[in-house]
C-alpha cells in the first residue's frame, strides 16, 4: 500500500457523531461483544476490520438497532447518537433507522422497479409532497449512488435485473434517498468484482462529505483506501482504534500488527 | 393360492440364485472381494433380478391374456341357439363363468366329486342342486350348453395355469443359470443392477401415469357416449336440470348451467371466508408470532385440514344451518327457507379451506429472503410497512397460487355440499337459497339403480369431465404462477 498517501489524508478532528461506551452484546449465552467503547466522528469514514466472527458486524448492527429483529440478542451499555441514548425506551427504532441507514453485504434490491426501490424510503417517511418532488429525489439519489447514467433510461425496469455491482450501488442510492445522518455498510463489496468495488469505494469517499460512514470490511487494502479511522476487533474486543495511517503503519498492539501483516486471521 | 405358491417358488429360486451368484463371484476372485469389479452382493442381486423379473413378467402377462383367449374359445363353442331372445352372448358367457367358478368351489368344498364335475353328461338338475347345496350362486337352471361351456372353461383354465406354472419356473431357473454363467470377476454387475433398479423405478412411475391416462380415457369415452344420446348444446347451455329416471318416463333436462352456477357460488362464498382469514393468519404466524406460539398455533391450524369433510358436513347441517335460519329465516329477516343453503355450505367450506390457504401462504411468506426485510428495516420502515410493501408483493404470486389451489379444492368438494347446500339445482342470486353443485349431482346420478346406458347415468361422466377440465385448468394456472415466482430469487 502507498503509505505516504495514507499519511497525507489525515483529517482534521471532527465532531463526535456516535459514542459507545462499555457495550456488551449477548446472543443467548454467547458473549459476542465485550466491553467495547468507541467514538465515531462525523463526516468521516470509519473502518471496522478483524478476522471473521470477531463481532464487527454485530457491533455495526447495534448502531441502528438492527439486532432488535433477532430474538435472542441482548445489548447492554450506552450507545449515544448526537448525545442521545439510542437504546432509551423513548427512542423509536424505526425513526432511528431512518437517521442511521444501512447497506448490506449482499445486494438486496426489492422486487420492484428501480424507481420504486429508491422511492420506497422517501414514500414511507413522507419526504416528497408531489410526484415531481419524488422524481427529483430519485434522480438525486441515483446520481449520488453513481448509477444514474446506467439506469436513467430504464427506471421502471425491475431492480433485480441489474448486475451485482449495479444492484449494490442501487442499494446505496436507496439508503441515501432517506437522507440519513450516518451510513452503515456491512462488507458492501464482498460480492462485487474489482471494477464494481472501485466504483463503490469512490462513492464512499464522496459520501464522506455529507455523512458519517462506518464500513465493515475484510479487505485491509480497502480499509486503508477508503477510511480515515480504523478500528480493529478481535474475539469480541476492540483491540485498537485510531487514525487509519497510524493503524496500518505503526500499530500499538501486537495483535493488530499480527493481523495486518497476515499472521492471525 | 397356487399363484401365491408360484410366486413364492420363484422368489425362492431367486434367493438361491442370489446366494449362488455371490459365492460364485467370490470364488472367481479367489475369495478376495477387492479383485471383483463390484461388491459381491451386486453379483447376487444380478442373478436374482435376472430370474425374478422375466418370470414374474411372463406370469402377469399370462394372467392378463389367458382369460381373453379361453373366453373367446369357449364362446365359440356355444351355439347361437343357446343365446336366448333379448339376451346377449356376453350374458351367457357370464353365466358360463359363474357356473365354472361354482363347480370349482363345489369340488373344493367336497360337495361334488371331480368326476361328477367334469362329466359332460351329468344330470342337469343334480348339478344345479349340488351347486346350491355348496352355497354357490345359481341364477337359473344350468342348461346343457352352459354346463358344457363351463366344463370346457374349467378344463382350459386348468391346463393354462399348469402350463403357466411350468413355464414360469423354467424361466426363473433359466434366469439363474444365465446370470450365473456371466458371473465372473470382470463382469460389471453393479452397472447392470443399477440399470435394473432404474427400470423398476420407471415402471412404477409409468403405472401411476398410465392409471391417470386410463381414468381420463374412461371419462372421455363415457362422455362421448353421453353426447351421442344427448345434444351437447343442451348440456352446456341448458338452464334447467331435471333428470327423469326411467321409471317415470319422459325426457330429462340435463343442463349444466345451474350446477356450475351453484359450484361457483358456493366456491366464491368459501373463498371469501377462507382467503382473508387464512392470509391474515399466515401473516401473523410468519411475521409477528413468537417462535413458541408459532410452534403451537401452526399445527393446531393444520388440524383443521385433517378433519374429514363429512364431519364438516355434519357441522353445516346441524350447527351452521340452524344458526343461519335463526337470523335469516322466517323469524328473522325472512330470506332463508331452510338450513340448507349456499351460505351454509360456503361458510363451512371456507372454514375447511382456512388451513389450506394459511399453511401454504405461511410457507411462501417465509420463503421471502430475510435480506428483503433487513433492507426495508434498514431504511426505517415499520414492520407493517415492510409487510405491506415488500414482503407481500414479493410473495404475491405464490399466494395467488395457493388461493387457486384452494379454489380447485372448493370446486371439487362434495360432502359439505350434499349435507349443507341441499339437492335442488337452481339458478338464483340469493345466497340463502338451496343450490347444488356438479359433484353432488354426480353422486346422486350414479347412486340408485338407474340403467347404466341411459343419458341420466352417463351425464355423470360428462359432469366429471367438465369438472376435471376446470380444476386441471386452475391447477395448471396455479403451478404456472408459482413457478414464475420461484424464478425471481435465483
From TrEMBL, chain A:
CDD domains from the UniProt entry: ABC_PstB_phosphate_transporter
Keywords for the protein's UniProt record, in alphabetical order: ATP-binding, Nucleotide-binding, Phosphate transport, Transport
UniProt-recorded Gene Ontology molecular function terms: ATP binding; ATP hydrolysis activity; phosphate transmembrane transporter activity
Record-level GO BP terms: phosphate ion transmembrane transport
Keyword Transport (UniProt): yes
Domain ABC transporter residues, every copy: 18-260
Keyword Metal-binding tagged: no
One GO CC annotation: membrane
Gene3D superfamilies: P-loop containing nucleotide triphosphate hydrolases (3.40.50.300)
PROSITE patterns found in the cross-reference section: ABC_TRANSPORTER_1, ABC_TRANSPORTER_2
UniProt protein name: Phosphate import ATP-binding protein PstB
Organism: Actibacterium pelagium
From TrEMBL, chain B:
Parts of the chain that traverse the membrane: 45-65, 158-180, 200-224, 264-285, 305-328, 340-358, 457-482
Predominant localisation class: membrane
One Gene Ontology biological process: phosphate ion transport
Subcellular location: Cell inner membrane; Cell membrane
InterPro entries listed in its UniProt record: MetI-like (IPR000515), MetI-like_sf (IPR035906), Phosphate_PstC (IPR011864), PstC_N (IPR022182)
GO molecular function, one term: phosphate transmembrane transporter activity
Domain ABC transmembrane type-1 stretches: 260-478
Keywords, alphabetical: Cell inner membrane, Cell membrane, Membrane, Phosphate transport, Transmembrane, Transmembrane helix, Transport
Membrane topology annotation: Multi-pass membrane protein
One of the record's GO cellular component terms: plasma membrane
Pfam family, one: DUF3708
PROSITE patterns: ABC_TM1
The keyword Membrane is annotated on this UniProt entry: yes
Known function: Part of the binding-protein-dependent transport system for phosphate; probably responsible for the translocation of the substrate across the membrane.
Membership in a protein family: Belongs to the binding-protein-dependent transport system permease family. CysTW subfamily.
Protein name stated in the entry: Phosphate transport system permease protein
Species, as recorded: Actibacterium pelagium
Upper lineage: Bacteria, Pseudomonadati, Pseudomonadota, Alphaproteobacteria, Rhodobacterales
Record gene name: pstC
Amino acid at each position: 500500500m502507498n503509505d505516504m498517501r495514507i499519511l497525507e489524508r489525515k483529517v482534521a478532528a471532527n465532531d463526535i457523531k456516535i459514542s459507545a461506551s462499555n457495550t456488551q452484546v449477548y446472543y443467548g449465552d454467547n458473549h459476542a461483544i465485550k466491553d467495547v467503547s468507541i467514538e465515531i466522528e462525523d463526516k468521516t469514514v470509519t473502518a471496522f476490520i478483524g478476522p471473521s466472527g470477531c463481532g464487527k458486524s454485530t457491533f455495526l448492527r447495534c448502531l441502528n438497532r438492527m439486532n432488535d429483529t433477532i430474538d435472542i440478542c441482548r445489548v447492554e451499555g450506552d450507545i449515544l447518537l448526537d448525545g442521545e441514548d439510542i437504546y432509551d425506551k423513548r427512542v423509536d427504532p424505526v425513526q432511528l433507522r431512518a437517521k442511521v441507514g444501512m447497506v448490506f453485504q449482499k445486494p438486496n434490491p426489492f422486487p420492484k422497479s428501480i424507481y420504486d426501490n429508491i422511492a420506497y424510503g422517501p414514500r414511507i417517511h413522507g419526504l416528497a409532497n408531489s410526484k415531481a418532488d419524488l422524481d427529483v429525489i430519485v434522480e438525486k439519489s441515483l446520481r449520488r449512488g453513481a448509477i444514474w447514467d446506467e439506469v436513467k433510461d430504464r427506471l421502471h425496469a425491475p431492480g433485480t435485473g441489474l448486475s451485482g455491482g449495479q444492484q449494490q450501488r442501487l442499494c446505496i442510492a436507496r439508503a441515501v434517498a432517506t437522507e440519513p445522518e450516518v451510513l452503515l455498510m456491512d462488507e458492501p463489496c464482498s460480492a462485487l468484482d474489482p471494477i464494481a468495488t472501485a466504483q463503490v469505494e469512490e462513492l464512499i469517499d464522496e459520501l464522506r462529505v455529507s455523512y458519517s460512514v462506518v464500513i465493515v470490511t475484510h479487505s485491509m487494502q480497502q480499509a486503508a483506501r477508503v477510511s480515515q479511522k480504523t478500528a480493529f476487533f478481535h474475539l469480541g474486543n476492540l483491540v485498537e482504534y485510531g487514525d487509519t495511517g497510524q493503524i496500518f503503519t505503526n500499530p500499538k498492539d501486537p495483535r493488530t500488527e499480527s493481523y495486518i501483516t497476515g499472521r492471525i486471521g | 393360492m397356487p399363484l401365491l405358491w408360484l410366486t413364492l417358488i420363484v422368489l425362492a429360486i431367486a434367493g438361491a440364485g442370489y446366494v449362488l451368484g455371490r459365492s460364485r463371484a467370490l470364488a472367481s476372485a479367489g475369495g478376495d472381494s477387492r479383485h471383483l469389479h463390484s461388491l459381491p452382493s451386486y453379483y447376487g442381486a444380478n442373478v436374482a433380478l435376472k430370474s425374478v423379473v422375466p418370470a414374474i413378467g411372463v406370469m402377469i402377462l399370462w394372467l392378463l391374456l389367458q382369460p381373453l383367449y379361453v373366453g373367446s374359445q369357449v364362446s365359440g363353442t356355444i351355439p347361437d341357439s343357446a343365446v336366448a331372445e333379448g339376451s346377449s352372448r356376453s350374458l351367457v358367457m357370464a353365466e358360463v363363468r359363474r357356473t365354472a367358478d361354482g363347480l370349482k368351489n363345489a369340488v373344493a368344498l367336497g360337495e361334488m366329486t371331480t368326476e361328477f364335475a367334469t362329466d359332460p353328461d351329468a344330470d342337469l338338475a343334480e348339478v344345479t342342486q349340488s351347486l346350491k347345496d355348496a352355497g354357490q350362486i345359481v341364477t337359473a337352471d344350468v342348461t346343457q350348453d352352459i354346463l358344457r361351456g363351463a366344463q370346457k372353461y374349467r378344463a382350459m383354465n386348468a391346463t393354462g395355469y399348469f402350463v403357466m406354472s411350468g413355464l414360469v419356473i423354467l424361466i426363473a431357473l433359466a434366469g439363474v443359470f444365465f446370470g450365473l454363467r456371466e458371473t465372473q470377476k470382470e463382469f460389471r454387475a453393479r452397472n447392470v443392477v443399477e440399470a435394473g433398479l432404474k427400470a423398476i423405478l420407471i415402471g412404477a412411475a409409468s403405472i401411476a401415469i398410465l392409471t391417470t391416462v386410463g381414468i381420463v380415457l374412461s371419462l372421455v369415452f363415457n362422455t362421448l357416449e353421453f353426447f351421442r344420446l344427448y345434444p351437447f348444446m343442451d348440456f352446456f347451455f341448458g338452464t334447467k336440470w331435471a333428470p327423469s329416471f326411467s321409471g317415470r318416463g319422459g325426457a330429462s333436462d340435463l343442463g349444466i348451467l345451474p350446477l356450475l352456477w351453484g359450484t361457483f357460488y358456493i366456491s366464491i362464498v368459501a373463498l371469501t371466508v377462507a382467503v382473508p382469514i387464512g392470509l391474515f393468519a399466515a401473516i401473523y404466524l410468519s411475521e409477528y408470532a413468537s417462535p413458541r406460539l408459532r410452534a403451537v398455533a401452526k399445527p393446531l391450524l393444520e388440524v383443521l385440514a385433517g378433519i374429514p369433510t363429512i364431519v364438516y358436513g355434519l357441522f353445516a347441517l346441524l350447527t351452521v344451518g340452524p344458526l343461519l335460519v335463526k337470523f335469516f329465516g322466517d323469524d328473522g329477516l325472512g330470506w332463508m327457507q331452510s338450513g340448507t343453503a349456499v351460505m351454509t355450505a360456503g361458510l363451512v367450506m371456507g372454514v375447511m379451506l382456512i388451513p389450506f390457504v394459511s399453511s401454504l401462504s405461511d410457507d411462501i411468506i417465509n420463503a421471502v429472503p430475510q435480506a428483503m426485510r433487513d433492507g426495508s428495516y434498514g431504511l426505517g420502515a415499520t414492520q407493517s410497512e415492510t409487510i405491506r410493501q415488500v414482503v407481500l408483493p414479493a410473495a404475491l404470486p405464490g399466494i395467488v397460487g395457493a388461493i387457486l389451489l384452494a379454489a380447485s379444492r372448493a370446486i371439487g368438494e362434495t360432502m359439505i355440499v350434499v349435507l349443507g347446500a341441499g339437492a335442488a339445482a337452481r339458478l338464483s342470486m340469493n345466497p340463502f337459497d338451496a343450490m347444488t353443485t356438479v359433484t353432488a349431482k354426480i353422486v346422486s346420478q350414479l347412486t340408485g339403480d338407474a340403467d347404466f346406458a341411459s343419458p341420466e347415468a352417463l351425464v355423470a361422466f360428462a359432469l366429471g369431465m367438465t369438472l376435471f377440465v376446470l380444476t386441471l385448468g386452475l391447477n395448471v394456472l396455479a403451478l404456472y404462477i408459482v413457478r414464475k415466482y420461484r424464478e425471481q430469487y435465483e
